[in-house]
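Predict both folds.
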Amino acid sequence: MGEKADLEKKAIEALERYREAYARAEALEQEEAAARQEVSKRLNRLEITKAKGEAARVKPEVVAADQEAISRLSEIRTALSEATATLDSAFRVLAALDEKLGYIPGVSAAKPNGSDIGSSAKENGELP
């Protein structure tokens, strides 16, 4: 296998790792948004309860659920931070291979008029 073919294979593998990392980070961003919304709702309910002077009557189960929601948000944020680091690393590898090759196999260059939107690299005959 020639050097160029080896670099193309590495670039295709790097692109797949990048796409996987991107999908993971995107999914975690959505999870984080939902968890943040849940925590926000719980905090609002707690504020309303405190404003009514009923804070002493908050059930232990509610407090435990509130703490669990906050803990879950923290876990998701940690996972998102790790996923973002993985995405950044995958991007750097992909960018280095792009620099060496001058292109990424299987990815067409965008045409200025956008006429390639929706076309795949396989359809364009760009995959090895």
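Second protein follows, with its predicted structure tokens after the sequence.
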Amino acid sequence: MDTQEMKNLIRKFNIYIEMNKDGQAYSDFKEGVNKGLDIAKYTFEDNLEKLSLSVPDEDPAEKIRDLESNFNQLLDGIALSKKPNCSEQRLDGVHTGFERSKKIFKEFIQESFLPENT
């Protein structure tokens, strides 16, 4: 995957994430969800090259499953600890944001990697 393809994928995924953020996060939980989505966005950006290299070129459905699994493992491996200024609701929101971003990622890669039905 060349640099321009990677930049395009990152830009496209960022759009997916931004569309799913709450523009008026008026609670700790909703702010946490937005934070979880941001963490997922940066995790994707930081690990895209590793994600794409770890999946051999095989049939598109298998590639999607492998990419989804690898991305989910990355998010599941992020350890969050309660910080002094972080409420329990915000921490729950971050976890919810992670789960939401997994669904967003699945939708994103299906659209990006499945051949068009013409």
